[in-house]
């Protein structure tokens, strides 16, 4: 059960944070207080209001900047202020730093670790999306597993492999019961004769087509990653809580962090479809770990598109624009994907960037030469906000009561 946040006392200097919808921001729509517009006045922002007014065509945001610039601090206080107005947040938290935010709302983080006893089923989305459009669920499920195996194999799937995977997920979806990754793996290793007939091949041929992919996915089931995403979701997770934190810090150093974050994001997406509880903010901090794999970056983009219909505003935290140009992949698709992800995030918050990133950032975000010259010199907590076509230079301000949210020692707060 979640309880409302405790009342907090603030000085008049923080009136904007205390009464966010009263603060008049430069954007002309009501919003939560963010900080000081360095050209004068308070800066308030609300993606839902801007989207509803037509000022933005999507409510998503990317926050980028070098380490230690205040990206996570901004996101934490933003979520805290939004929560005061009933906007819930679900957070994929690879460093385990959002726990305090949850605890202040009476909710412990969902900690994921190999053998840790909490399981999230990424294939919950098979059933969840299936409720909306017939067949959509297994299509999304197969897309997810294809993306995960592409990331893991380091190459694109061949058409025969993709078909074997799709047939396996379909099979599991229609067979009844909870679709899970182990069931999909089994269905690939030992396909149903009808599945083989539907593509005019034999059971043995179809099994051979899918074998390499199945073995790769088996890693989630039997290998070093087991126990987190390989079965039905643990029932005691309270998705109705205002703040849900998925803490992946136990696997932060794993080479498979991106894959695990994607599984967590996929599960969140399924839960969003089921929950339907009004506007929500979904945060993926350290999102570069996902974006370095072209396959899963593609999947993430398609899920952002889908989420818009559900009233979800996404926030992705990156270091630099080049994170979007997925390392390890080349060519026009990568570039198109990077541009697409940016186009799908009309709010871009840019903290200081190193000189080597300036040209790419300017190019991707369409910055003016004055804006570019500012970027290397921005101090901590100061960012260039591009909201649609408009630009603001904003210093993020913390209220005294919000210090505990961003303190590195905050992990020690009692459960
Ligand atoms: N607006 C702010 N006011 C004061 N201190 C801040 C502010 N934003 C960030 N900080 C401090 O900077 C440190 C690093 O911020 P953090 O958000 O963790 O950086 P990033 O996520 O960019 O790596 C935090 O521990 C916090 O103490
Ligand atoms: Mg951070």
Helix content: 40-55%
Tell me the CATH superfamily of the largest domain. Answer: P-loop containing nucleotide triphosphate hydrolases
**Tally the helices: what do you get?**
17
Q: Rough shape?
A: globular
CATH architecture of the largest domain: 3-Layer(aba) Sandwich
SSE topology sketch:
Blueprint: H1 15-18, E1 32-37, E2 42-45, H2 47-52, E3 61-64, H3 71-83, E4 88-93, H4 99-104, E5 110-111, H5 124-130, H6 136-153, H7 159-174, H8 181-189, H9 193-198, H10 203-222, E6 243-247, H11 257-275, E7 280-284, H12 288-291, H13 294-308, E8 312-318, H14 332-343, E9 347-350, H15 358-365, H16 369-374, E10 382-387, E11 390-396, H17 403-406
Parallel strand pairs: 3-8, 3-9, 4-6, 4-7, 5-6, 7-8
Antiparallel strand pairs: 1-2, 1-11, 9-10, 10-11
Bound molecules: adenosine-5'-diphosphate and magnesium ion (MG).
Write a structural description.
This protein has two domains: 12-73 and 83-120 and 233-397, Rossmann fold, CATH 3.40.50.300; 124-222, no CATH class. The two termini are 14 Å apart. Residues 7-13, 15-25 and 409-415 have low confidence and may be disordered. The protein has an eleven-stranded mixed beta sheet. Helix content is 42%, strand content 13%. It is of the alpha/beta class and 415 residues long. Helix 6 (136-153) packs antiparallel against helix 13 (294-308), helix 7 (159-174) packs across helix 8 (181-189) and helix 7 (159-174) packs across helix 10 (203-222). The protein is built from 17 helices and eleven strands. Adenosine-5'-diphosphate binds next to helix 3. Residues 65, 67-73, 380-381, 396-398, 406, 408 line the site of adenosine-5'-diphosphate.
């Amino acid at each position: 059960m979640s309880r409302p946040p405790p009342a907090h006392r603030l000085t008049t200097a923080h009136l904007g944070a205390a009464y966010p919808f009263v603060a008049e921001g430069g954007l002309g729509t009501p919003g939560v207080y963010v900080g000081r517009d360095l050209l004068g006045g308070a800066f308030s922002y609300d993606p839902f209001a801007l989207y509803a007014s037509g000022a933005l065509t999507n409510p998503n945001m990317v926050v980028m900047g070098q380490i230690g610039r205040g990206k996570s601090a901004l996101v934490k206080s933003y979520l805290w202020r939004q929560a005061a107005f009933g906007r819930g947040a679900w957070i994929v938290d690879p460093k385990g730093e959002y726990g305090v935010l949850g605890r202040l709302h009476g909710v412990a983080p969902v900690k994921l670790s190999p053998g840790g006893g909490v399981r999230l089923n990424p294939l919950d989305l098979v059933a969840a999306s299936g409720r909306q459009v017939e067949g959509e669920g297994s299509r999304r499920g197969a897309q997810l597993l294809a993306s995960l195996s592409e990331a893991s194999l380091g190459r694109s799937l061949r058409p025969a492999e993709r078909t074997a995977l799709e047939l396996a997920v379909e099979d599991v979806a229609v067979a009844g019961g909870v679709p899970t990754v182990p069931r999909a793996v089994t269905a690939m290793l030992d396909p149903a004769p009808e599945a083989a007939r539907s593509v005019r091949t034999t059971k043995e041929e179809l099994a051979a087509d899918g074998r390499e992919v199945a073995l790769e996915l088996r890693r989630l089931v039997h290998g070093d990653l087991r126990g987190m995403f390989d079965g039905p979701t643990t029932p005691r997770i309270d998705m109705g809580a205002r703040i849900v934190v998925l803490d992946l810090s136990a696997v932060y150093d794993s080479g498979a962090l991106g894959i695990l974050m994607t599984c967590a994001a996929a599960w969140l997406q399924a839960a969003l479809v089921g929950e339907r509880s009004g506007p929500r903010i979904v945060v993926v901090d350290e999102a570069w770990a996902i974006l370095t794999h072209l396959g899963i970056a593609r999947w993430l983009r398609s899920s952002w598109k889908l989420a818009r219909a559900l009233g979800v505003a996404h926030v992705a935290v990156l270091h630099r624009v080049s994170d979007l140009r997925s390392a390890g992949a080349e060519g026009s698709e990568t570039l198109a994907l990077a541009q697409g992800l940016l186009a799908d995030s009309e709010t871009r918050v840019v903290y200081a960037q190193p000189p080597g990133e300036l040209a790419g950032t300017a190019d991707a975000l369409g910055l003016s030469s004055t804006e570019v010259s500012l970027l290397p010199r921005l101090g901590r907590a100061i960012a260039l906000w591009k909201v649609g076509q408009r630009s603001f230079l904003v210093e993020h301000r913390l209220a005294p009561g919000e210090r505990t949210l961003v303190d590195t020692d905050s992990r020690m707060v009692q459960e």
